[in-house]
């Protein structure tokens, strides 16, 4: 079976492509011309030469102009020898216009992209009309030309989008983001940082964006819950250090997000600078190496479910700290399996309690970390890739 993966937000489809190829499937990645630089395949692997023959760039950007001036003949030629198609971004709209059925749509993250009509702006009338056209084609593509939609209905915004577009019958509850496990190779820069990390006995690691002030938050769900909430992590960690001055602990943070300066100010006020290491933004292939030295990976203490940071932590077999609204029972009912082991935290007090618990029960948490690694392989890594292939196999057979 030849599979075409359309789009590569968060390097999600590049990860799927690699898993598929490991499983003997001839999978190819077709990227939009305007993929974000941070999410290009070379930032996700140390073996880019190995995968380069299976990576292609489409003659269009995933935007309004790309759909309005679609190069149908060229695209059909590129896709003519493939048996199945998985897409993200504007794939449903594109494939509708090409007259090719899209087997699976996997959205970028929490919502279904390009399905919300823009507010009419007389100042930018043409842009508003063109954007409305894109949404109309995208919605029609999802409803009439897409066989299955992957969703994570445990997230409110995802569930609302599925319901709003009447896609429940074709919706399958699976995860959206995938991280590929490969053997990592230390660069000189990472080797230097690793040497620092090896000096500490207890490492709390978070490469999440620093964003908690409402003036920066435009996403409705983020505004409701207060962004990522790393201020709670810093304050809780500061309390932990104050009460455990003998602890050889380190908090690793990244200079990423609109509230970095505020985060640094809190750290100064708490006088814990020597217990914090700031790093510049870096690609996933480097971050994953550093995560290996962490004891706890913290994603978001205000959001309702973990995102890419959480998946990266779980992929390296780490304990995840995260705020989750759903109970274990609610999660199981939606997803059909248990949650990984998570330190639930939505306040600085809970952060401090978890950190104290870890240093007094290290062996317990080491065992739980091993279980998280197994959980990832079964439900989110190779196991999820196998689930996608079963689904594709079924749709391809139906086509025949």
Give an overview in words.
With 400 residues, the chain is α/β, with parallel strands linked by helices. The chain folds into 2 domains: 197 residues, Glycogen Phosphorylase B (Rossmann fold, 3-Layer(aba) Sandwich); 192 residues, Glycogen Phosphorylase B (Rossmann fold, 3-Layer(aba) Sandwich), CATH 3.40.50.2000. Helix content is 45%, strand content 14%. The chain has a 7-stranded parallel β-sheet with strand order 3-2-1-4-5-6-7, with helices on both faces. It has a 6-stranded parallel β-sheet with strand order 10-9-8-11-12-13, sandwiched between helices. Strand 4, helix 5 and strand 5 form a beta-alpha-beta unit. The longest helix has 20 residues. The protein starts with a strand and ends with a helix. The model has no long low-confidence stretch (mean pLDDT 92).
